[in-house]
Amino acid sequence: MSLLRQAPVFKPFKLALIQLGNIGANKADNLKHAREKIVEAAKGKPDLIVLPECFNSPYGHVHFPVYAEPIGFVPGKPYDTSATKSESVKMLSAVAKETGTWLIGGSIPEREEATDNVYNTCTVYNAEGELVVIHRKVHLFDIDIPGKIKFKESETLTGGKTTTFFDTPFARIGLGICYDIRFPELAMIAARSGCHMLIYPGAFNMTTGPLHWELLQRGRANDNQVFVSMCSPARDLTAGYHAWGHSMVVDPMGKILCEASEAEEIHYVDIDPKVMEDARSGIPVTTQRRFDVYPDVAA
Fold this sequence. Notes:
By secondary structure, the protein is an alpha/beta fold. It has seven helices and 15 strands.
């Protein structure tokens, strides 16, 4: 922790969540529609725009290898978005630069050329359109609830191996993707690394959504006294996978600041640092932890 660079000063900022609909089999159409919604969201003058998980393809383990794109990002090395083989990265980079807005590009299936591994990968762009960080989904969605849903991402995906955050002029933001939110250790590490907000592009379903979508966001926010948000695709009952929707933002006291319906929508939320300051001064768990009794997972 002593080697960690200092986090930026937490400043008020406006967040935009795009609960994207009309995600079909045609990738070019998906990218065109996503670009249009980003441009539309930018009209509200947000500082940061977020897309949902798997915004450029249908969601499903059979689809991931078909739609996967090489990204080739190496942390700490310059990345030429104009020369990338990823059409999704090119679009996202261009529209971030065009709108002058930080952009969390949901997630896309990524193929690592050296290994042929496929990952569920989130890409992040600054207001100049530079790709600044990627997060590969760490925890793969392998579940089996008898009579309700069975899904196994590990049939075609490989799990990432790193925790991820990035710095903006207004906040340090931690990243996860969907199922990652079920693992409190990832959120604890991010929060103790100075993150002010945790953002998870995600696509819960009609079984896990009603059960745990709100619960997990409020839990991670309350435990770590940070802002938490999940951005879902809109629900499409004609698709093979039915997303829950209900994109949400929760404050450090566990209060829901916004919740979408199941339809395609854009939501704006003003993030106020004073809420985090008040939560941590009034209920100071961040200074009361007993690492002499139990281990610090972020150490």
